[in-house]
Amino acid sequence: MVAAAACGFFLTTLAACGGERTEDRHRDVPRPGGPSGTARSGPAVRSAPARVPGIGERMWQQVPVGTRQVVAVYGEQEDSPDSTLVLYEKRGTTWQRIRSWPAHNGKRGWTTNHREDDRRSPVGVYTLSDAGGIRDDPGTLLPYTQDEDAFQTPYYWDEAHWHDFDYVIAIDYNRVPGTRPDDPTRPMGQSKGGGIWLHLDHGDGTLGCVSVPESAMRYLLRRLDPQDRPVVVMGDRANLEA
């Protein structure tokens, strides 16, 4: 018997949801000037940022000290299901953009007060602790639960969703970190929803999760390192920048 439900659909125990570009660091180099031979600076070149771009001070304060990997999900608008996921890594004192992908979030957009079945993704900063899926571990450093039955989508779902949970990374919203992604425990209560994951994209909005192409999931699973204390910072752009 399938023990799975996705992004607001609850069956028995599971609630889940239905080119690399590294920024260069530069410095201005003096070059010869006019007849006097005095030096002048070239055009200003943007350095790698001291914090992840597009994230305001209020949100940035929630990123744990010691975090060196940030998965930023930039929602297009508060009521839009369209977003972009970008992986950043801290190198020295600056944040480098590693890779980005198109993504989807909740069908109705984003919310700062997520409720069960609202079909919106929760805005916030959340740790990324556990992974799993139907398919074998692709080589992740995160604890990985492979379970064909537990992560199988319900038979009545549209065929486009059948591979949603081939790979998942649990977003630690209203869950206990260190447990398998389908653990049903909801520390803030059932009404606050749960089972918010990163998972495979099916071409449109989700019931609360964030979905990305399979290539992105495989890359993230192999790249995220618990020693770098990875987090996801997610929300519509206006809320992220506030």
Radius of gyration: 20 Å
Structural class: mainly beta
Write down the oligomeric state.
single chain
Tally of individual helices: 3
Helix content: under 10%
Task: Describe this entry's structure for a reader.
This protein has 242 residues and is mainly β. It has one domain. The protein is 8% helix and 27% strand. It has 3 helices and 13 strands; from the N terminus they run ββαββββββββββαβα. The protein has helices at residues 57-60, 214-223, 237-241; strands at 31-32, 39-40, 69-75, 82-91, 94-104, 110-111, 121-122, 124-133, 144-146, 168-171, 197-200, 210-212, 231-236. Strands 3, 4, 5, 8, 9, 10, 11, 12 and 13 form a 9-stranded mixed beta sheet that branches. The chain has a two-stranded antiparallel sheet with strand order 1-2. A two-stranded parallel sheet has the order 6-7. The longest helix has 10 residues, at 214-223.
Supply the key terms.
9-stranded mixed beta sheet, disordered N terminus, 242 residues
Q: Helices and strands in order, then pairings?
A:
Elements: E1 31-32, E2 39-40, H1 57-60, E3 69-75, E4 82-91, E5 94-104, E6 110-111, E7 121-122, E8 124-133, E9 144-146, E10 168-171, E11 197-200, E12 210-212, H2 214-223, E13 231-236, H3 237-241
Parallel strand pairs: 3-13, 6-7, 8-9, 11-12
Antiparallel strand pairs: 1-2, 3-4, 4-5, 8-10, 8-13, 10-11
